[in-house]
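Fold in tokens:
===
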Amino acid sequence: MAESESSLGVLAATPQPQPRLASAWSPFREPLFRNLWLASVISYSGTWMQNIGTGWLMTSLTSSPMMIGLVQAAMSLPVFLVVLPAGALADMVDRRKLLIASQVWMMGAAAMLGVLTISHLVNPVLLLLFTFILGFGAVMNDPAWQAITPDVVSPQRFASAVALNSAGFNVARAIGPALGGIVIAVAGSGPAFLINAASFLGVIIFLYTWKSRPHAEQIPAARILEYIKAGMAHVNETKPVQSVLVRTGLFSLFASAFWALLPIVARPHGPVTYGILLASFGTGALAGAVILQPLRHRININALVCGATVLFAAAIVAFASGANVKQLCIILLVAGMSWIIMLASLNISAQQMSPVWLRARSLSMYLLVLQGGMAAGSAIWGAVASQYGVPIALRISGIGLVLGLTTIGRHRLNTGPVSIA
């Protein structure tokens, strides 16, 4: 929903003397948000099934550690290659049509890979190629997907909607691998890929029937470099944007140790326990989404971020102790709650840091820093764990999270109103 940069003014909700606190669940009262949330959780669950199936299939096709490691690289590489053009494109064209195209792209790729896998025609190189193709579609989708949130929920419920979106993703993170493990054990990776393909249908149907605000103008694709440069200039000139990116980069770099090393800590307890641990994290994420809005009403967002970061760092350090399963579930419950509070706070600030005609480009930079930090951090913490052991790597990352808070005086997050026009 790009609009003319020269003519658009940013509209903001006028604060009331005593604003009414929106319930954490209030976005579900709005049919647009509720339907999209349900469809997206189903789609995310299919994506996690796809990820589990891809890793399992590669281990059955080859014993090469390099090829197995390249699976994660194939998933992450599109972020570095196309997320900035994707953000520019989402500000240039009708976001609804761009989202439909990217969803159809991913559905087609997942379906084709499923058919090839069932037909025993997949080899390691082909699997990596389709993994990259799916990752490309996901990256093209992400900036526009993030940018439509203010269009499907009312402004006063925006913060709760962002928290519920983050919680939904993490609920799917718990559901998808568990379902994927069952499907793969019973039928193999091919059917898991086909289920993922089918999971895109709900989002596609929603987008097709959604009557979004009309797109103002169609901007020639040849101007994409011009749009990227304008977005970069906005970063260089705008302190709130820089602050969000700095806070996001520091958090993702150190927090990535948790996700990189979680499977190693869980491995001795078996795959069933691994699923239980993910479910505990997802439950904590939902709890974090519920309490986020009341907390934001009472606590400054920068103090909230500090508290959530310290809590997540403490969970990481406790996780490094190799506790029993019951204790690990409690630790992951706390980790999930603090993760959502932190990530949703960053996302809310990212949504607020730019006017509407720059929103997707700014969000693409946020996604580049977030996902790039997670990808780079995973490699770093894997290397540290290989050299010094998993507990030491987790403890260092926890300390790094806390030390990163020293930059918050210089890089405070924006607490202004959401740009809705």
Notes: The two ends are 10 Å apart (CA to CA).
